[in-house]
User: Fold these one by one.
Assistant:
Number 1:
Amino acid sequence: MNLDQAVSRVQRLFGDDFEVQIKVTDVVDWVNESIMTIARETECFTATQTANYGAATLGLALNTDFIGERRITWDGVPLDRTEITSIDNLGLFPSDVGGSPTHFYFHDSKIWLYPQPTATKSLVIAYVQAPAVISDMTAQLPVPIFMHNDVCRMAMIRARELNEDFDQAARLQQEVDASLGKSRDDQQNKARETFPVVKDDPSDWSY
């Protein structure tokens, strides 16, 4: 489904094909808002940021499309998340220098490592990515196909709220919540279907 088809579907379901009450620009905004919500809820967009991080690095600026981390490694070693306040509460200093960092934290739109490494190594940030805003009416919705209906439902919620039809909006929200919950589970557990499974040997069965 492309953006034009999504907008037309919302207009048709709302019963306003001629922009009497809701404008195409409104629906486009709602569609983009819906895609961003889906990205946050299901983590269906991911990316990787790689950079060197060493003794002279004063925090690394995160990519502008960063939503949240999934896995952080320095020199191939996974790091644990902490908070700058946790370091302060232990009487430590964020600038403490150590052989290799064991933790990371976020501050001032940057990622920082603790303790500060003495050597420069590769920092790899696997993260949940914010999708780009779409405005080209021929552009395909960037979410997986099975989520396209959710995009339209979520846009319809905004249309119903604009029309002060709050009961219908609440009903649609329940449908969306249930669907996104399943999509989130499916997205975050894809790997479970790729693990080898050891099954019983029928010759071992006894009756």
Number 2:
Amino acid sequence: MQIQFHKTQGLLIHFPLTELELARTVLRNLYATTKAQIIMDLIKTINLYLQPKLTLVSHFHFCHNCQMEIDDRVGDNFIHYTSDTDDKWFHRYCKPLKEDRP
């Protein structure tokens, strides 16, 4: 945190991104005193920024030739074809299907 005071310009408090939790605490205390809506809006924005972001990654896909599962973490027996309209996965060499399969 950096605090700068200029007699003609005013007071400046700077929080780097690594200290956003401290900034949120300071803003909450400031809001408790002033009840200014702009401070509450800023607190909500910081809360959204600090909220953990979870991403879902699926490593399983279906081969468009044999309709069998492809795990993209194992080996390199697959081809991922993408274009503006298509997103397809193919085995390089599809496994032979079992006999008498429905």
